[in-house]
Amino acid sequence: MSKLRLNVSVLAAIAMIGPAMAETEVVDGIPPVSIATSLPDNGDPTGSRRWLAQHGITYGLVYTGEALRNVSGGVRRGGLYQGKLEAFTAIDFGKFAGWQGLSFFGNAFQIHRTAGMRGEHFNSLITISNIEAIPSTRLSELWFEQKLFDDRFGFRFGQLAADAEFFISDYSKMFLSSDWPTITGANLPSGGPAYPLATPGLRWRYDPDKNWSALVAVFNGDPGEQGTVNTTGTNFRVNDPPLLMGEVQYRRNQGKDDKGLAGIYRLGGWHHFGQFHDHRFGIDGVSLADPVSNGIARRIRGNSGLYGIIDQQIWRPADGGPDSGIGVFSRIAGSPSNSSHINFFLDSGIVFSGMIPGRPNDKFGASFIYGNISNRLRAFDRDVIVHSGLTQPVRNYEMTIELSYQAQIKPGWTVQPTFEYVRHPGGHISDPDRPEQPIRNGAIFGVRTTVAY
Questions:
Q1: What is the pLDDT of residue 227?
Q2: Which of 221, 351, 399, 402 is deepest in the core (most CB within 10 A)?
Q3: pLDDT surpassing 50 at residue 16
């Protein structure tokens, strides 16, 4: 059998379907968790997938579909079905052409019937489903990576998505609402380089040993709005002010045979070199809500943020891996209030893996996400009330709670019932039909299925 080291981005593409994978090998071109292993001839009756893998080429498909229903609150009630098909391929040029350390990765999405629950039902800032996007068929990442010095140093260049490597919590991946954090999605131009958007960039990574990693990346700072400017993922913008991101990671007890509690700790930050609008004051120093204001927002040079992430196993069963037992996670971040829509972000949760007898690959857990509306925006809302004399809500925060169970039907196929509750949708914004009142809190029930080949 042909065995290939599994590309990190291929792992990321299929990590949603089951427990985090301790194995890092592709066998005969088949990822460690794939429905192919349950099919005749491993889903490869002609042997073409095995032959390609022997020559350094691997590929896969991941389909995610879900039905969600808003049973209370929001701006409308009702249900929807939405889905995403991802296709990806990776090339190991050591096997393909004898060029050691060079690899290629590309992926594309076919996104259908999405963006409704978050945008049309709640007008929320926090993600309700992490496959939400404008319906389209689009390219995502497309890059080459060269590793050097016994794989301790590597640089990646091409079209990159920041959320493939930065600001990630491993334990949180099972939840539908776990996504590129709201603080970056709300504060960066076009939401930043994160699903479904990627943008040209360079990334450097240094791994001095198995426990430590340091990453630095420079991205084009505006990937373009997915529904207008960048509808297919192929505009390859390079002229926008850059986005700089950096992260340091420390891992412990990540081996399958390690006995101690596993943990991953990350500290990072970002800086965007563009210009941003002040959310309250104009260039004349007057509140933008004041009728005498010239209406031109003051410009602020740059926007930044800092974040910390903890993934901590708190109980590890005998002979269990780093993804087994009970794990907790948290991400916390902050940004300046004057140029940011969200100035504080926090999510946290707990995940139970393999806790049900006879169901070693099932997971269940609970999480919450909190996004705090910046002080500048709150003050602007109060200014509007003072100058207009009209009653309206003052934005303060948005919070989402999720309860979820992920059942493995077959390796590579999961079914996941879920419940979410959205509090203060949009950060406590006005209901379009009743401007004096906020959009009501709401409850969502749903079920997701994911199949990886």
A1: 82
A2: 351
A3: no
Distance CA 115, CA 55 (A): 39
pLDDT at 18: 37
pLDDT tens, residue by residue, 229-266:
899 999 999 999 999 999 999 999 999 889 899 999 99
CB atoms within 10 A of CB 360: 14
Using alpha carbons, list the distances in angstroms from residue 95 to 9, 11, 143, 306.
Answer: 18, 19, 18, 40
Domain ranges of the chain: 3-452
Strand-pair partners of 446: 68, 418
From the list 17, 65, 134, 76, the residue with the least C-alpha distance to 444 is: 76
Half-sphere exposure of 242 (CA within 13 A, CB side): 10
Instruction: Tell whether pTM > 0.85.
Output: yes
Q: How far is residue 383's CA from residue 388's CA, in Å, rounded to a whole number? A: 8
Residue pointed to by tokens 């990334």: 203
CB atoms within 10 A of CB 204: 15
CATH number of 3-452: 2.40.160.180
- Burial (CB count <10 Å: 0-12, 13-18, 19+), residue 294: exposed
Distance CA(118)–CA(82), nearest Å, equals 12
- d(Cα 66, Cα 77) in Å, to the nearest integer? 17
